[in-house]
Specification:
It is found in: Cell membrane. By secondary structure, this protein is mainly alpha-helical. The protein contains 13 helices and 2 strands; from the N terminus they run H-E-E-H-H-H-H-H-H-H-H-H-H-H-H. The relative contact order is 0.12.
Amino acid sequence: MTVTARVRSSELRQTGTVTKNRARRRRIDAWKAFLYVVPALAFSLTFLIVPTFQTAWYSFYNWNGLSAATWAGVQNYVNIVQDEKLRDSFLHVGVLVVFYSFIPIVIALLLTMVISRAHALRGMSFYRTVLFLPQVIASVVVATTWLSIYSPNGLLNTALRGVGLDSLTKVWLGDFSTALVSVGFVGTWLNVGLCLVLFLSGVGNVQPELFEAARLDGASSLQEFFGITLPALRGQITVALTLTVVSSLKTFDLVYITTRGGPGDATTVPAYEAYNRAFNSGQVGSAASVAVVLTIGILIITALIGRLQPKETE
């Protein structure tokens, strides 16, 4: 019995040692995993999280960026509502949402309906590439190109003159009635390809048997689209809405290069106002408040759009 007890005691000690070693290895592995995350975490803290809180702090002060700051409380936020120029900038970005998001999604859905039924046609992959091409071109190049197209002697006016519509020619980016719409159409051109690629990838996940069954039942193109394609694209439409709405709300470089907010204040947007007030007008506190409101707005809109995302069980 004594020998048996000693053997059992030895086995228990060995088991305990193995268990401790395993626990130690798990702790070491956990620390190793944490060390891998540290560089990304440090980068985010340094260039994203800390500057975000600093910006929010600056928004409660009147500061020109050089001299001593004075406490302003919530006045900078009140000015966003009271200042007509700032109010208009948020209204302008609302108009851009239509051109950057809703119109591209509608156009892309129509193209998806056509392409999904004509996928066997020769050269279809080429057309897809051409439509997506604007997404891979630098925004500065895009803005410069459209600035040339919209110029008095640019491609658009030249084409109008060529077909005898001289009365319609104008300085598109210099006219109060057309400047914002002209900027918006550039956003439409940019985002159609992105939406189309998303939707075509979604259509590719639909079982071909569903389309074949619908065609055998005599379903028209519209019936097939609204009955099969559109419901299957709910997730892709949500992603497209998120990407395009956020891109419209963040619009800066296109406005900066093409119009600088002009003519007058006809194309000012919040991102441009934040830049202009911080670096040109010496109103850092006001610029910070605009940036904070814009950021909160983007987060809220993104969360609301995310609710459209289908559940995994659906």
